Amino acid sequence: ADIAMYAAKHQGRNRFSWFDASMERELQARTELEVSMRRAIPAGEFEPYFEQQIDLTTGRLQGFEVLARWNHPTMGIIAPDRFIPIAEETGMIADLSFSVIRKALTEARDWDPSLIISVNISPTQLRDPWLAQKIVKLLVETSFPANRLEIEITETSLFDNLSLAQSIVGSLKNQGIKIALDDFGTGYSSLSLLQQFPIQCIKIDRAFVNDVVTETATQNIVRTIIAMASAMGADVVAEGIETTEQLAQLTSLECHRAQGYLFSRPVHVDDVPRVVK
Ligand code: C2E
Ligand code: CA
Ligand code: CA
Fold first, then answer.
1. Between residues 107 and 4, which one has the greater pLDDT?
2. pLDDT digits (tens, 9 = 90+) for 157-206
3. Of the candidates 79, 73, 77, 80, the residue with the CA atom closest to the CA atom of residue 36
4. Handedness of CA 25, 93, 95, 128 (dihedral sign)
5. Of 35, 69, 160, 274, which is most buried by a Cβ count within 10 Å?
6. How far apart are the CA of 153 and the centre of ligand 3, in A?
7. C-alpha 37 – ligand 3 centre gap (Å)
8. Closest CA to 45 of 89, 81, 95, 119
9. Residue 121 in contact with residue 151, Cβ under 8 Å?
């Protein structure tokens, strides 16, 4: 019933959907993936990939966002949209994320010390009252400096459980860890609540970057987000830049940090440019 409901929602809500053979197959595939994930996490099959973040004022590399990939023994590289939702539903997300972050920090520890490493924390993880302590423990275990770590949190997950999120974000900030608001503009942020969070960075969602060249309305929204971030004393990162036109437009809107396939796709640690290592 749940699967049929999701199918109906996926097709645009406000409709019904029968559970059928194709959904049965999907359910089976999902269950197989789930069983396989339980084995794969302790086996270390989840790996960090690194996506460059560029300082647009200097053109220099500023750091990397860490993105999880499943290096499956028979299926090859599997993208996060296949396994993150399952990991969230089954409670495996914390183990999965931490195993990926641990590997990433161990790799990046000895790189150019000016590089910031950004990692993603999912909404489920933000419901763990010990999250900040666990992250600090990970920093100690990997000897990674707190001021080089940035935690990416989506705006929706912040407001899911406001008081807990505030205490977690406060503890992280006190340790010198940076906080970035991911996928900004896609949720329902309350600006008055937002200003209570010590946020160093706002990441403009790819959906806006996609339309920024062709849509005047989108240009105005992006301009407003950049002005708002500046009023909050936060940096702005544009996500998902694919074309030089998008880059030029964002530069003219005074966006100072960016990432996207135009610069580089997320790469395996072996393909991280040698200059940083
Ligand atoms: P996100 O945090 O918004 O990550 C950005 C996504 O956009 C990444 O997809 C990245 O590969 C993709 N991307 C970057 N530049 C471009 C571009 O120019 N064009 C296009 N079309 N896409 C671009 P990816 O790696 O598939 O990750 C998807 C989502 O999965 C992430 O969205 C994040 O929410 C989640 N995720 C990935 N790794 C982790 C993890 O270790 N832990 C948690 N909790 N979530 C993760
Ligand atoms: Ca992110
Ligand atoms: Ca994002």
1. 107
2. 888 888 999 999 999 999 999 999 999 988 877 888 888 899 999 999 99
3. 73
4. negative
5. 69
6. 9
7. 24
8. 95
9. yes
